[in-house]
Amino acid sequence: MESQYLKRCLGNCLKKGLAEVVEHRPADPIEYLAHWIYNYRRILDEEKKRMLERTELEQEREAALVELEMLRKMKEEELMIQQKLEEQRQGQLEQDHEKLELQSEGNKMLLQRKDQEENEKTIAELTDRPGAPNLTRVEELDESGQSESIGDLMEEAEQESSQLF
């Protein structure tokens, strides 16, 4: 059991360290092995730290890519929303313009109808209003200063024309 523990925890480190001691044959092999194991541990710790940093960097890179993709999609959505809003504004402007044209045409037609109605009114209808002079009878003064009505004058004119024939 203890041998398993030593193999698992120190096996690789001791093999490499003893191989270094045999290769270099230092004057104090124990001190050399101790420094070598200390450096070995420091290198292992640095490698673990670098691996963790690489993992963190890779995760940050992936997160940044995801964020960039989200930003791109958000910009696309924003552009689409702006286009839709612009289309809606254009549609609303066109509708408003059409409404104004229809109102303008309706107002023109209404004014034309009123003009026609006013033109169709007879003189009698216009003079029947309160305050209007009574023009149904027009009196004219002849040379002698006597007043004659148009009706009388027309009768006289007819009589004269019938006598001529």
Write up what this structure looks like.
The protein has 165 residues and is mainly alpha-helical. 82% of the residues lie in helices and 4% in strands. It has four helices and two strands, in the order H-H-H-E-E-H. The chain has a two-stranded antiparallel ribbon. Helix 1 packs across helix 2. The longest helix has 92 residues, at 29-120.
Helix fraction, binned, reads over 70%
**Total count of helical runs of at least 4 residues:** 4
- Total E-strand runs: 2
Order of the strands making up the biggest sheet: 1-2
Which structural class is indicated by helix and strand composition? mainly alpha
Indicate the radius of gyration in whole angstroms: 59 Å
**Average pLDDT for all residues:** 82
| Residue windows where pLDDT falls under 50 for at least 5 positions | none
Please provide the ordered H/E string of secondary-structure elements: HHHEEH
Label the overall shape.
rod-shaped
Distance between the termini: 162 Å
Q: What about the largest sheet? A: 2 strands, antiparallel
Strand content: under 5%
